[in-house]
Specification:
Elements (H helix, E strand, L loop, with lengths): L3 H16 L5 H13 L5 H9 L3 H19 L2 E11 L5 E2 L18 H14 L3 E6 L4 H18 L4 E5 L5 H8 L6 E2 L7 H7 E3 L5 H5 L1 H7 L5 E4 L7 H19 L5 E3 L19 H14 L4 E4 L5 H10 L3 E3 L29 H10 L3 E3 L3 H4 L4 H9 L3 H20 L4 H15 L5 H11 L9
Parallel strand pairs: 1-3, 1-10, 1-11, 3-4, 4-5, 5-7, 7-8, 8-9, 9-10
Antiparallel strand pairs: 2-6
Helix pairs in contact: 1-3, 1-11, 2-4, 3-11, 4-12, 5-6, 17-18, 17-19
Cofactor: [4Fe-4S] cluster
Organism: Carboxydothermus pertinax
Protein name: [FeFe] hydrogenase H-cluster radical SAM maturase HydG
């Protein structure tokens, strides 16, 4: 298979969708039956369901998405926080405040001690996994920097999984990154429409569309078997981007036997001194359909939702397919520990400003299990091993107990500071354990964890 197959597949499905977008009663019934019986949709079917806001079809879509989410992931929601290391960048992306020619932000690159301090602030919240983010700089400079930062965080802070979102590397560069024992390598294509892509990326290495699109191939070939993809919805027609994400995931799975571990669905948000002026507005309703369609088309993948989105919508989307959420995020280097909040360093504006405790509380009220689990990476359940379990709906057999254990550890850590949340969480754990196989063994492990035992997983 060739990387260009993605583009050909997407363009064909996109064209076919618009040619047949006016649904007949026969086609509506066909799509409804597929959703009711769990038959996989074609890319053109995806396009037709997305374009047409037909109440009966949409309710079938949302219902099916909930079933898939429950089957594969159960009721757990993984929580994490991004750690921005640097906002220096050699690219000029018209929608981003980090762009090289933006003189309205303060440029910061965290020193080693600062990065460790930021990681410790995040850990003190209760997070055990972080996502490192930085603007693009020359490859060797970036890797030399990360080769100091990542080992130091692992050694000095009780962070158990470090995922990384950085610019594309060469295959040799990805091998160096793998040696740092990262979790997931995450990269968004931004837009799968090459014309839109060229319009919004004005200069810099990022302007090379194919180099970016082929980056996940190089990461996999270098031995990084846990990867995440995504698009920035709002740069162009969201249908094209939706089809692009699905086609990219299908390509990876067919070629390497490994689909993306995660798919992210960021919507374009205001950024300091951004110069992009042609935003394709996406309603909340259409955004819900994007999440639901990704869930049923890529049932094995974790869908990540950031704090770009408002809290009410985030709370609703966990029902339709989202399985991972950032919580209490900051989007600029040094912003977790900095007292001076006037200094502008962030990449984009946030919409959900709740604390981690507030988000945990809401999840519990909705019957979801907050998870800080990092077990799969450390138990080598990644790549094809993860895919084999997730495809058969078996991954939750590991994930649910591990999520319970990680949440129990979180509760122990906050019990004095937030006693009411501790009681609510403990009651939730007690009831949930009763529904699981091996409940007695899990209950015994949780008793140890709630008395201070750390880092328990299977």
């Amino acid at each position: 298979m060739n990387i260009n197959d993605i583009l050909l597949t997407v363009q064909q499905a996109y064209t076919e969708t618009y040619m047949s977008k006016n649904l007949t009663k026969l086609k509506i019934n066909e799509l409804f039956q597929k959703l009711q019986w769990g038959e996989r949709l074609s890319l053109t079917d995806v396009g037709l369901v997305f374009l047409n806001d037909h109440d009966e079809l949409d309710q079938a879509l949302f219902g099916y998405a909930r079933k898939v989410k429950e089957k594969i992931y159960g009721r757990r929601i993984v929580l994490f926080a991004p750690l921005y290391l640097s906002n220096y960048c050699i690219n000029n992306c018209s929608y981003c405040s980090f762009r090289k020619q933006n003189d309205k932000i303060t440029r910061i690159r965290l020193e080693l001690k600062q990065a460790v301090k930021e990681a410790q602030v995040i850990r003190d919240m209760g997070h055990t996994r972080i996502l490192l983010v930085m603007g693009e700089e020359p490859e060797d400079k970036t890797l030399l920097y990360l080769e100091k930062i990542i080992p130091a965080i692992y050694e000095q802070v009780d962070i158990r999984r470090i995922n990384v979102n950085i610019a594309p590397l060469t295959t040799d560069g990805f091998r160096r990154l793998k040696n740092l024992k990262i979790g997931t390598y995450q990269l968004f294509q931004e837009s799968y429409n090459s014309e839109i892509y060229q319009e919004v990326h004005l200069s810099g290495p990022k302007k090379d569309f194919i180099w970016r699109l082929s980056a996940i191939d190089r990461a996999l070939e270098a031995g990084i078997d846990d990867v995440g993809i995504g698009a920035l919805f709002g740069l162009g027609d969201p249908l094209f981007e939706l089809l692009g994400v699905i086609a990219h995931a299908d390509y990876l799975k067919k070629k390497y036997g490994i689909g993306p571990h995660t798919v992210s669905v960021p919507r374009l948000k205001p950024a300091v001194n951004a110069i992009f002026a042609n935003e394709f507005k996406i309603s909340d309703y259409k955004f819900k359909k994007i999440v639901a369609l990704l869930r049923i088309m890529l049932p094995y993948t974790g869908i990540i939702l950031s704090t770009r989105e408002p809290q009410d919508l985030r709370d609703e989307l966990v029902e339709l397919g989202v399985s991972q959420m950032s919580a209490a995020s900051r989007t600029g280097p040094g912003e977790y520990g900095r007292d001076n909040k006037e200094e502008v360093t962030h990449q984009f504006l946030l919409s959900d400003h709740r604390s981690l405790e507030e988000i945990v509380n809401v999840l519990l009220e909705k019957g979801f299990l907050p998870s800080f689990c990092t077990a799969c990476y450390r138990s080598q359940r990644t790549g094809k091993k993860f895919m084999g379990l997730a495809d058969r709906g078996k991954i939750k057999d590991f994930c649910t107990p591990n999520a319970l254990f990680s949440f129990g550890e979180y509760l122990f850590e906050i019990k004095d500071k937030h006693p009411e949340l501790f009681i609510k969480g403990n009651n939730f754990l007690t009831e949930m354990v009763k529904t699981l196989p091996n409940s007695e063994k899990i209950k015994e492990a949780l008793i140890d964890i709630l008395n201070g035992k750390k880092d328990v997983f299977i």
